[in-house]
């Protein structure tokens, strides 16, 4: 029972991180030039409306109290008012979560396939030609900016070969498998080198472990040893990278959504920065950071459930 | 005798230099040379508009064609190298110095400072890196200076963590205890005894970080949040070529190749340095 108690205990360990995140996003808005109320309501707002906003967000109180208001409002789902969209920030964010999550998950799925296709042969030919080739591919791909990869895909697969549509996110999830293929591939290419390097290293380490030598000396076929022993034992360490990967993926969607014109959170972030829509910037930052924390938490729980040795 | 021994050691070192390091250093060196010599290698002004010469394909006159403003792409590419190399350098140096100093102090003295550092690390890591950089740029204003500031604010934690893990081991090493026993001051122990022994992983990471910094900086340029047009930054050039993918592919394609090769150079150098470090230990 002991290790399941952790699932209950772990959320409390996240509290300092979440407080930190709220502090940073709060300070970000404090540092913006100008009066946030004017930013929210525009320069032609009436004095009464301005006063009402001030009271609502506690902006006429000391900074510490303002922080209290910010946290209380955020907990209740009130992230302020967007000037550019003339509607609550939380509403705009809610509308744009789906495309981002779709592209993220799709990209992660493609990347998993690519990683397996690269890391497994590399590890099995450890030090050989395939291994060197895979390493070279990873080193090269990691330095190619993903927005450029996206544009090249648009140019070759989209405009010249006309294989895939160059933009558009529809309401139909199945059609989106088709429409979102190039964006997802772009994201997948950005994270595959990291995952491949990691999985390959773990596989190699496992292949040299004592229990594997024992299996071999028992006369088990090499492929049996690999797929039944080495491979399952190598997945957990790679799964533990999830926090880093999700953070990377989200950075990737910011770019990919801009290149492929996908109406998600990343595109919203960039547009809000350019239009100085600070409350939206703050809200998106907060939501994305909480997303990373939540994912890391889920992965931690999964690790405990999958591996009885892990105690946290 | 001594001289002969030294030479042979040196030769052995040189022979041991991994090929990836040699190739990587060559690529980066070439880009640095091209950047420095840019004004002498091309006759065209990278910014001056020439409306009679827009969207011209590659030719003897314009080696890599011209863009929608009639500017020579080759000239912009070389002058852009100055901006992107500068981004790689200053984007890495600030975090390296600040992060190393904080990591060294926190790990050496421990206690509250170290505990605080660990909490800051936890929080920063939970932010999507790129989103945090963009958010800070948003608060300041799009441009190169904001990019350096936000990168330093976000990235120092990586170096602090690298340094911290090294110092935690080293501060109880025998040579440090010996130095303390004979009464050497903390400051000197940190700077002369611990730092030189702890810095190697950070230096290797600098190369990897340079790749991330170039890709990130040019991404900001691409999104309109970094270097502003008409400056010939590579990300900015790609953004300008985005609209002309069909009619004038060369505008967006060549800057992308430039970024990729420069990043590859740094990656290879990092790979080689990591091997060298591994062999030395």
Question: What attributes does this structure have?
Answer:
heterodimer, A: 312 residues, mainly alpha, MetI-like fold, 2 strands, 77% helix, globular, B: 281 residues, 11 helices
Please provide a brief summary of the model.
The complex is a heterodimer of chains A (312) and B (281). Chain A has 312 residues and is mostly helical.
The chain pair forming the largest interface, with residue counts per chain, is:
A-B, 51 and 47 residues
Strand residue content of chain A:
under 5%
CATH superfamily grouping of the domain at 89-306 in chain A = MetI-like
> How many β strands of chain B by DSSP?
0
Please explain how this structure is put together:
The complex is a heterodimer of chains A (312) and B (281). Helix content of chain A is 77%, strand content 1%. With 312 residues, chain A is an all-alpha fold. In chain A, helix 10 crosses helix 12 (222-239). The model of chain A has no long low-confidence stretch (mean pLDDT 86). With 281 residues, chain B is mainly α. Chain B has a single domain, classed as MetI-like (MetI-like fold, Orthogonal Bundle). Chain B is 76% helix and 0% strand. Chain B contains eleven helices and no strands. The longest helix of chain B has 37 residues, at 73-109. The chains are: A mainly alpha (312), B mainly alpha (281). At the A-B interface, helix 2, helix 7, helix 8, helix 13 and helix 14 of A face helix 4, helix 5, helix 9 and helix 11 of B.
